[in-house]
Each structure stands twice: as structure tokens, then as C-alpha cells.
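Notebook, bench 3.
Goal today: get a predicted structure for Katanin_con80 domain-containing protein from Pristionchus pacificus so we can plan the truncation constructs. The sequence was checked against the plasmid map this morning, with no discrepancies at the termini. Length recorded as 573 residues. Pasting the sequence as submitted so the record is complete.
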Amino acid sequence: MDLECEITKESSESVAGLSIKEDLLITGATLKAHSLSHAGVLVWSHGDETVDHMFVSRDERSLAASSSNIIKLLDISAGRETRRLVDHNCGVTSISSFSRSPYQWLSGDDEGVCRVSDVRRHPSTLIALRQSRPVRCAYSSPDDSLIVIGDDSCLQLYDMRQRKLLSRFIHSTMGVAFHPGERLMASFGDESIIRYWDLDTLECVSQSEPFNERIINAHFSFQGESLIVCSSDGVRSLSWEPCSLEWNFPHHTPSSLMYSHLDKDDKIRLIISDPLTNTIKVLSSTLIQMESSINDRKDDDEIEDVSRSLELLSSPLSPVSSPLPCTNNTDVMLLNNEDEEERSLRVVSQSPIFQSTVTKSSSSNTNKLPKTTCRMTNDDEKRRKMDERKGSMKKAKDGKTSVDIMSMIDMEHSSVMDDLNASYSSLRGAKDAFRRGNLPQVLETWIRDRNAAILCALCRQCTYRNRWNLSLSLSILPHLPIILTSIHRELRGSALFALSSIVNAVGDVVSSMTRNGVPNSIGVDIAAEDRLRMCNSIEKELVLIQLRENDMIKVMSDDEKAQLSAIIALFPS
């Protein structure tokens, strides 16, 4: 890694931060900002209080620094204090900013109180969330809809919109990282284990092996392919589906990692405290450079291993100190005038595998090899018979060899894998489109691919998020009979669940509008006319499902039959 900046460390400095836009390295004990590009020249300093924690806002315009129970907000470019938050009653243990609003901050303290503050308000506290233990970290999701609070024993997720606790997990949490595109979060704590959480299902989907050193920070790469984990002994790259180690870039000097930063160009910067030189260093490198350096190091190790092997092969062999064992009672006499070919042949003839009768050549024709008669052992005879048996079984009844059959199996396997990969890609694309709210694109994908998994996934998401309306119900209902007659129980269960949700969500509206109509609105209120048309179409689709009930129950279990009958009984009449 390249050295960008190096400054002399004060005795009590333990926290640091970076502002890439302003080209500043910010350190505490007392707040000081040093230029990254001008050899660590001091740009500004502020106050003489000891800084316990600091956080640079997402837009890198503001800096929050805490001393005891007071949080100072500063303008990074000038080092000027803009606001002071004094709502906490004890020491502040965590600070972070919201992603979308530069005015809202999250902070936690030793009493277990996490506060959402807006610097435009007086007093600034919007929400106060109380925990049973001191808060170790508090972060907001990229869309600011979730708040994640971690302490020594648990991880808690709060919904900011509904102002309620979503879930709680018994795992120590000291920091989290959010995926840039997926509804995925990575967390780490005192156990030094990375855990991945699906924010839709609120489940742990995978986890890593324990690390040797304490994890300081973790970042997803800009495209989200991997998670970069930073600790005092090195930088590692982990995949998240499934979780596995991709590469490890160790530190070769004893140091303490204070802070890490990963920008949109996948360039990572580490702020390291070096006890040998009593300095603070900023090291930087791109992820591609780190990975290529690791690969080059592996190649050098392989070349060194090969060269060592060649040296061993090229070195002269030492003479045998003891004679070879004999298989008969005849002593082996090593003659000084015996040539190399005769000596090697005689040693082979006395081995336990081959029994030979050696006829010595005449002394006048020393270049001619002696004639040998070899006899196979029982193991060789068994191996030969097995090979003959395999050769006789190569021909199949249809005249195809085993090689042809294996080739056909490989082709079928490749075809099945291609279909599965295509289905997986379609499902991932539909899932991303649904998360972005682009329901017409999801429906277009389903109609084009006729993928039952996409339809079932869409139905589950609509049910969980209460997204059923007239237009979406009308788009899904014509395709449900196909899934209800499927041989797969999981797909039938999803379709029954979707049908029940549709009836509960829009059944009353359909019944009311088809029975009463829209008086004095047809031809004037276009929206009301469209709603009436959709209600009539939904009623027709429900009637078609009711008429096909006998065909559907042929593949259903008794529980599914009873469930379908109960749902049909709720159809609007």
C-alpha cells in the first residue's frame, strides 16, 4: 500500500477520520485537521477538549465530535463550530449521520439511549430509543427507513416510518455495513464474526469464520460484489453469497488500525497508528492492486517452490550405505568390473515383483542386454482381468459406448444448469425491480418468461407489504390457475396464499362496485369508470377460478382442497 500522509502522534490520540472531498485527515485528542496532499500540514485546530468519538457526515461537509456527553458539529472546511447538542445525560458512545438528510444525526450513550436529532430544531431530539445496555453503534439504512442499534449482547432493527421495533437478535454488534443495491446488511461484534442479514425477511443468511483480530470496520465494494473487512492484522475480502474468503492482505508491521475509508472508486484508505515510530500513517491502495499483489506473491512462492525442487533433482545422489535385501539365499556380489546396465538388471531381477532368470552376456559383447523371462504376480493378473471385464462392458445394448452415454449425460446436465441460471437471473431481476417499485417490469418479465418462481415471489412480496390493489390483482389473477394446477406443493401454497390475500384486499371493493355501480360517474369520472371496469374483470376471473375448481383439486392435498374451498366461499357474489 502507498503512504499518502504521515504525522506525529500525540500521546492520547485514539480516534481519526477522513474527508476526501476536503483532502483532510482529522485526528483527536484535540481536534486537528491535516492536509493529505501537503505532507500532513496542519490546516486547522479546534478547542482543547479530548475527543472520544467522531464521525464525518455522508456528504463530507460536517463533522460530529463528542466529548463526554456533548456533541459538537463543525464545518469541515473551516473548522468552525455550527451547533452543540447537549441532550445526552452521560458519555456519548456512538455517532453517525443519516444518508439522505445532512441535518439529522444518530447518537447513543452509556445509559442505552439512542437519540435521533435534527439540528434545525430546538430542542434537537426527535426520537429517543431506550436500550438495556450501553449503545455501541447506531446507523441508518441507505434509504433512512431503518435504524440499526447494536450493543454488547444484541442487534435491534427499528422502523423509522412506523416508529416501532422490527426485530431483535442476540448477537454482539459493534458495527454494520449496508449493501449498496440489495436489502442486505453485514454486522460484526466482539466475536469477530461477520454476519449477513436479509432486511426483507429479517434473517441471518450466512456468516463467516471467526477472525484472529478484532474487526475495526467493514465496507461493501461500490458494486456490492464483496465485503471488505478491516482489522489490525490486515484487510480481507469476503463474498456474501455464500460467505467465503476471497483474499487476505496482511499487515507486516505491528500497528493499530484507527479508521478505514472506501470510496466509490474502490480505493481503500487506512489510518494506522504505528507504535514503533510514534506516528499516524494514511495508507491507500485500490482493491484491484491489493488482489493483484496477492496473486503476484502467490506466483513468486510457486516459482520458489519449483526452483527448490529443481535444485533437489539436479543435486547428485548419495551412495547407498547398505546393500539391498535379497529374495533368495544367494548373496549379492557387487563386482567392480560390472557395468551399470548389468548391475541395474540384476537388482531388478531380485525384486519381489519380478522373478527373472538372467543370462549374462559374453565379455566380448558388453553392450548387448541379457534376455529376461518375467512372470506376473497375482495383483497384476487381477488388474488385467478387471481391465478385460471393463472393456467387455463398454458396449451398451443400443450400441453406444460408455463414453457416448457420459457425453449425453453431460449435455443434459449443462442444459439443465443453463435453464436454472436463466431462471435465477430472471428472479433476481424481478426482485430488484420490485424493490425499486417497478411492478410493470416485473409483470412483463413474468409474461415473457412464464416463470412460476417469479410470480410466486411477486405474490409473497405483495402480500407481505400490503401492495394489493385493483390493477395488480387483475394482472395476477389470470395466471394463478396455472400455478394452482402445478405438481409442486410450494408453488400451490404460494398461489393459494396470494388468492386469499387478493380476496381479502379487494373483495369488498369489487362486491360493492359491481353490485351498486358508480351512479352519475360513468362518462364523467374516468377514474371511477376504470375502477368499475377492473372490478368487473376481477369478478370474471374469480368466476373462472371457481369453475376450474374440480381441475385444481386433482393435484391438491386434503388441506389444500379445504383451503381452496374456504377461499372460494369468500368470493364476492
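The chain has two domains: 2-296, 419-569. Residues 402-435 form the longest helix (34 residues).
Flagging this for group meeting.
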